[in-house]
Design a protein that fits this description.
The structure holds two protein chains of two kinds.
Chain A: H1 7-18, H2 26-39, H3 62-66, E1 68-76, E2 80-87, E3 96-103, H4 115-124, E4 135-141, E5 145-151, E6 155-156, H5 157-162, H6 170-189, E7 192-193, E8 202-204, E9 210-212, E10 219-220, H7 240-243, H8 252-267, H9 277-287, H10 318-324, H11 329-339, H12 350-354, H13 357-360, H14 382-388
Antiparallel strand pairs in A: 1-2, 2-3, 3-5, 4-5, 6-8, 7-10, 8-9
Chain B: H1 9-13, H2 18-34, H3 37-40, H4 46-63, H5 68-84, H6 92-106, H7 113-124, H8 132-145, H9 156-162, H10 170-183, H11 188-191, H12 194-222, H13 243-252, H14 261-274, H15 278-296, H16 300-313
Helix pairs in contact in B: 4-5, 4-6, 4-7, 5-6, 6-7, 6-8, 9-12, 10-12, 12-13, 12-15
The chains are: A alpha+beta, B mainly alpha.
């Protein structure tokens, strides 16, 4: 369209749209509205700034939009506002709660829609799997906003881990690991690296099913020889190759992160919680072993590699892991060790991990419906509060920001 | 490459039939006629326009030093977009710049919005608004018209993968690659899965090229439009030349393709056994050949002028 200025052009687009075979949803609207009126859903609580994007019968995507109501705001983040809403009940389906993520056009830097939002839309539109958060619909409002309708998930694994009033059985842990690995396997099979696996991105549905969320850092495998940034993954879950500045890496970064989530599920506290990147690397050396040419051929040629000097810790073997993570049992430790290998090429793939003996041995994975649920009713705020922190960061406090993983566009063309 | 073509939105939502495409275009035209726009702003037929837009996109991509992949994605976006929105309701120059801008983000090689606008302005001057917010706004509309189905699967990867088992010569790969570039002028990417297009390009490069060779050569000498941008592309020549050029080059080096017949039969055997739909390949081939036919008589003058009249007349810049 032309460079639209104000409402007049919106209507130009509106006209164009009306010629499209699916643009005009009038046929469907009436019964939907009638139904909604009966259930008392019609009122839209319009608690965020742009009033104009509601209820305009001439608006775009009317049909999709009319399927949902917005109930209340859950949170606001750098690039989006999240509202709790629900899909209106229809003749055949009852109302379903959803999270509506409204993506703001980046007004501050005036550089269009942010990469995070683009990536999220791009991947969630393609990836469909029971263990990956579902993008139900996308609609646009005329106020320059793209609205993503996501499956509403009310808690995450971090809440479960922190809630020490609950004990987690090995069957529970197995079940969560199994679901995470399935989701991850599907990503990797589709050539997508998640790049921000951590407990608070593993969301839990009310029925106990775990789903991978937040694809704001995800990207597809790079073509050979194309660079990728090493500034990804929240520090506590970042694998050693990224601290060494590797520009070529693979899905094995996600496996390492998930390995650390596995530890955290057992320890109920982050296994390696470094205060700085350097400290994090020290912790990896101390607890998992010091990367050397011997256990990781080629490591010394990575751009950020430095010889730590001093005490070298041999890459940890079964004894160490058995002592520390005795609860996992022999086969569990075997899987964990494969996920936490220093040399990314030696780590197992998601597919291989799913074949681990551990999953087919007693205690069997708990059925999702029987898994521990989040304590109290705080869970409902989950999808919203999560937004306040940018992906790749650990804390919500503003002063912590910026010290963490920086996310910005890489204009070098090297890929982000 | 991301996700899997067979489960992709491209296959589910953006693989259309010829009839469907014709219907969509006719629908837009009729709408324009009722609005009275069709008569006031006549446009060349869509084949002509596609050639023109392809040229514009290619020039912009060269200025931005893009690789082929983001360019191909941008071409696909533009095609999809103009199936849903009438050209007469848009500023095509702004639209194609937006496609390039979004495609760059999608292919993980983001360009700053400012540099896209600047480069577009050097090419299309007053037709591109200086205010970058216009392009940002357009991006939003583009995503929305594309139903946010953004991942596009391209044929290049298939070509790269099969070149080894098929023992293609560098010359043949180069030629096939150029055919692929040219395929984005046609509707093929809206009609067929990427691997079918890739095999068509290989088929053309190995079997049909000698025939086209003479024809395209005539083209190249007859029409300067074919060679446009050769000089501009000197900076590393990231965007590959089109067939017209590469054929001209191979003719100049006096090295016409002459694969041995044994190899030819090997490749045809491979084609026969691979389960590739030969019928689809024949259809694609015909599409490509009719493209080169149309290209022969094509000049950008008519398109340029009618687009300029449209933008000025509707004050779309």
């Amino acid at each position: 369209m032309s460079a639209p200025t104000g409402p007049s052009t919106s209507s130009t687009l509106g006209n164009a749209k009306r010629t499209l075979p699916f643009g005009n949803g009038n046929g469907n609207d009436t019964p939907l509205l009638a139904m909604a009126a009966e259930t008392g859903d019609v009122k839209l609580q319009n608690d965020d700034s742009d009033a104009s994007d509601n209820d305009d019968p001439d608006d775009l995507n009317t049909r999709i939009k009319k399927k949902y109501t917005k109930d209340r705001k859950l949170g606001e983040g750098a690039y989006a506002v999240v509202n709790l809403g629900h899909r209106r009940a229809t003749a055949t389906e009852s109302a379903v709660p959803v999270a509506i993520k409204k993506i703001k056009v980046n007004t501050e830097f005036r550089d269009g829609i942010t990469m995070d939002a683009i990536r999220e839309v791009k991947y969630l539109r393609e990836l469909h799997h029971p263990n990956i958060i579902a993008l139900l619909d996308v609609f646009s409002s005329k106020n320059q906003n793209l609205c993503l309708v996501l499956e509403f998930l009310d808690s995450d694994l971090e809440m479960i881990i922190r809630d020490t009033s609950q004990t987690l059985s090995m069957g529970d842990i197995k079940s969560w690991m199994l679901m995470s690995l399935r989701g991850l396997w599907w990503c990797h099979k589709s050539f997508v690296i998640h790049r921000d696996i951590k407990p608070n991105n593993l969301l839990l549905a009310a029925n106990g099913v775990l789903k991978l969320a937040d694809f704001g850092l995800a990207r597809s495998f790079a073509d050979p020889k194309r660079n990728m940034t090493h500034q990804v993954i929240t520090r506590w879950y970042r694998p050693p190759e990224l601290f060494y500045g590797a520009k070529h890496y693979s899905s094995s970064v996600d496996i390492f992160s998930l390995g650390l989530v596995f530890c955290e599920l057992m320890l109920r506290t982050p296994f390696l919680a470094g205060n700085t990147d350097l400290h994090q690397l020290e912790l990896i050396c101390q607890w998992l072993g010091t990367p050397t040419e011997e256990n990781w051929p080629g490591v010394s040629s990575l751009p950020g590699y430095h010889d730590a000097g001093g005490a070298q810790v041999k890459e940890r073997g079964t004894d160490f892991f058995m002592n520390t993570f005795i609860a996992a049992g022999e086969s569990g430790v075997e899987l964990l060790m494969k996920m936490l290998r220093l040399d990314p090429r030696k780590r197992c793939t998601a597919r291989a991990a799913l074949d681990a003996k551990w999953f087919s041995q007693e205690p069997y994975p708990t059925l999702p419906a029987n898994l521990p649920k989040k304590g109290g009713g705080k869970g409902i705020e989950k999808v919203g509060s999560d937004l306040k922190r940018k992906a790749g960061e650990l804390f919500n406090t503003p002063d912590e920001r910026g010290k963490k993983v920086a996310r910005k566009l890489d204009f070098g063309g090297g890929g982000g | 490459m991301a996700a899997n073509f067979w489960t992709s939105t491209q296959r589910a939502h953006w693989q259309l039939t010829r009839d469907k495409i014709a219907d969509m275009r006719r629908g837009l035209d009729e709408e324009d006629t009722t609005k009275g726009l069709g008569l006031v702003y006549p446009l060349p037929d869509h084949k002509q326009l596609q050639l023109y837009f392809h040229n514009c996109l290619q020039r912009l991509a060269r200025r931005l030093q893009l690789r082929q992949q983001p360019l191909a994605t941008a071409e696909t976006y533009l095609k999809r977009f103009y199936l849903k929105v009438s050209i007469r309701d848009t500023n095509p120059y702004l639209m194609l710049s937006t496609c390039v801008y979004l495609a760059c983000k999608m292919e993980e090689c983001p360009q700053h919005i400012r540099s896209v606008v600047n480069e577009a302005r050097t090419l299309f001057q007053e037709f591109i608004p200086t205010d970058i917010a216009k392009l940002a706004e357009c991006e939003f509309h583009l995503i929305s018209e594309l139903n946010s189905y953004l991942i596009v699967h391209h044929p290049y990867r298939t070509l790269m993968e099969v070149q080894v088992p098929l023992k293609l010569s560098p010359d043949e790969v180069m030629a096939a690659w150029s055919f692929l570039n040219d395929s984005y002028i046609t509707d093929l990417i809206l009609l067929y899965p990427p691997h079918t297009i890739a095999f068509t390009a290989i088929f053309l490069a190995v079997f049909v090229r000698p025939a086209i060779h003479t024809q395209a050569n005539l083209n190249a000498s007859g029409s300067t439009a074919l060679n446009m941008g050769t000089a501009a592309g000197a900076g590393g020549s990231i965007v590959q030349p089109s067939v017209g050029q590469s054929v001209a080059v191979s003719a100049a080096s006096n090295n016409p393709p002459n694969p041995s017949s044994a190899r030819l039969s090997q490749i045809s055997e491979w084609f026969a056994e691979s389960g590739v739909e030969m019928e689809a390949i024949i259809e694609c081939t015909q599409e490509m050949i009719s493209l080169y036919d149309a290209w022969e008589t094509w000049t950008d003058k008519v398109c340029r002028e009618s687009v300029a009249r449209l933008i000025r007349g509707r004050q779309l810049s």
